[in-house]
């Protein structure tokens, strides 16, 4: 079980540290640490570490199977995040859409792409039980 004293950690590749910092700070993430080979962010309450690794960048990223992001339990938070991404002119990989329309697992989603072609999904399920 995850309690409030636990933080999820994810490490991903980046091709250049400055552009990575610019992107994630523009998204509203707080830079926690910076070293010569990586940067660490507070990514919506979890820890995201971007390791300088230009040789490991996906040249042609696809949504599946590799992406990460946030599942909102509050529709208003999802909508605010979408409006923020549009206002900040963040790069969309996929525009907002409805997945599994008409099914119990129906959800709203959009994908952003960071400078190293990592894909970030933001989604909201109409049925909160489908978030897991």
UniProtKB/TrEMBL annotation:
PROSITE patterns: VOC. Coiled coil: none annotated. InterPro entries: Glyas_Bleomycin-R_OHBP_Dase (IPR029068), Glyas_Fos-R_dOase_dom (IPR004360), VOC_core (IPR037523). It comes from the Bacteria. Residues 6-125 form the VOC domain. SUPFAM superfamilies: Glyoxalase/Bleomycin resistance protein/Dihydroxybiphenyl dioxygenase. PANTHER family: PTHR39434, VOC DOMAIN-CONTAINING PROTEIN. This is Glyoxalase. It comes from Cerasibacillus quisquiliarum.
């Amino acid at each position: 079980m995850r309690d409030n004293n636990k933080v999820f950690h994810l490490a991903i590749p980046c091709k250049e540290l400055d552009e990575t910092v610019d992107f994630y700070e523009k998204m509203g993430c707080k830079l926690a640490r910076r070293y010569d080979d990586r940067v660490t962010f507070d990514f919506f309450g979890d820890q995201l570490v971007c390791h300088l690794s230009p040789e490991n960048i996906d040249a042609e990223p696809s949504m599946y199977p590799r992406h990460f992001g946030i599942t909102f339990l509050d529709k208003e938070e999802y909508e605010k995040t979408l409006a923020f991404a549009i206002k900040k002119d963040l790069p969309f990989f996929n525009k907002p859409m409805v997945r599994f329309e008409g099914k119990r697992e129906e959800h709203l989603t959009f994908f952003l792409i960071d400078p190293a072609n990592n894909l970030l999904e933001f989604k909201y399920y109409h049925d909160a039980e489908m978030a897991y």
